Amino acid sequence: MSDAPFFDLRNLDADGKRALLDRLKAWRACAKPEELPGTILRLGDRYISPDLEEKKAEARRKDFIDCRQHPCAHFDYPPSRPVPASFSEAHAAIRILQPLPHATGLDLLSQVYTATFELDPGRDSKVEEVIVKVYQVSLYRDVPELEQYVDKDWDLWGMMSGMDEEWAYRKMKSLQGSIVPHAYGFFQVTLPHGEPSVAFIMEKIDPVSYQKIARRLKSRYATMEEALTVVVNPLLAAEHAVHTCNVSTADISGLAWNMLWQRDNFLETGPSLPVLIDFGIVSTIRNGTQSIAIRRVVMVLRALGFDSKLIEAWMKSLTASPNVELEDAHPGDEDVSEDSSNPSTLRHSS
């Protein structure tokens, strides 16, 4: 079996699955993601995922406003962030610095760290921190139980999250630096214990907490109705931009914390867009895409402390929009994680 990353697991026969599981269990037993800081990872070939057949086969929804290019005229989009200077150069390695809080360990879809490019001695380039997301499949939560399913089809989005995220970022190239982080690329790497993987290197966003954003809204706007509008419009603008690329998140559980509020959000005039992150579980636009976008808005408003009656009134106002799907849009009794209000636990992805 090749040591190339093995995200597309659906084409393996039973013998191939057993052979892979033996290796995954061996790597899982000796993997120590908490000890990766200080390690230098050599960057191998760029990883480009195959276009999944079901994504190629799905017809683009025709009842959406058919914007094919970003930025469109439907929302007021701020200027894009500059590309990190280090992204203009070719690099052979990265040095892992620190894990992001709650973003490494067993049962996660990936391991996320801050890092720097490993520069040649004597080079005078400025050292910029970046985010590196390592898709370490051996630590996937279901690996210990997979043996009983080798004779069945594997429907494991989590184990293929690296493949899906590369596909999504390739589709969203025009959004990098505005709606999503700038991407340096996806690279094949070998971890210290010998496990082949893929590392996604992206722009590091300096985020602020939900609590700080909530305080800014209360101090800046005379009424909570006005504040709700200035929060909702940027959220819908960000979702709309992603939809122009025919991409939609399918990670329902992470809607409120798979986004980062930027350091200058709601401090200056003009739109304050969040940065959307974590596209490891995605699909093309499909039935329910609009309701997922509305669901994110509701969960974010809850995290910011908006009154439930105010949120309900906003949702009812959507019934006047002919193409908005409200079915399944209400999150019910779910709420965002307490971590989402704590700046020390804001993640790029996990």
Verbal overview:
The structure is a single chain. By secondary structure, the protein is of the alpha+beta class. It has two domains: 14-203, Phosphorylase Kinase, domain 1; 207-345, no CATH class. It is built from seven helices and eleven strands. It has helices at 14-30, 53-57, 161-171, 210-220, 224-244, 289-303, 308-317; strands spanning 40-42, 93-99, 111-117, 129-134, 183-190, 196-203, 207-208, 248-249, 259-262, 275-276, 282-283. The strands form three sheets. The protein has a six-stranded antiparallel β-sheet, with helices on one face. Strand 5 (183-190) and strand 6 form a beta hairpin. The chain is globular. 37% of the residues are buried. Residues 324-329 and 332-350 have low confidence and may be disordered. InterPro entries: Kinase-like_dom_sf. It comes from Exidia glandulosa HHB12029. Residues 325-350 are annotated as: Disordered. Residues 339-350 have a biased composition (Polar residues). This is Protein kinase domain-containing protein.
Give the arrangement of secondary structure elements:
Layout: H1 14-30, E1 40-42, H2 53-57, E2 93-99, E3 111-117, E4 129-134, H3 161-171, E5 183-190, E6 196-203, E7 207-208, H4 210-220, H5 224-244, E8 248-249, E9 259-262, E10 275-276, E11 282-283, H6 289-303, H7 308-317
Antiparallel strand pairs: 1-2, 2-3, 3-4, 4-6, 5-6, 7-9, 8-11, 9-10
Organism: Exidia glandulosa HHB12029
Biased composition (Polar residues): 339-350
Region (Disordered): 325-350
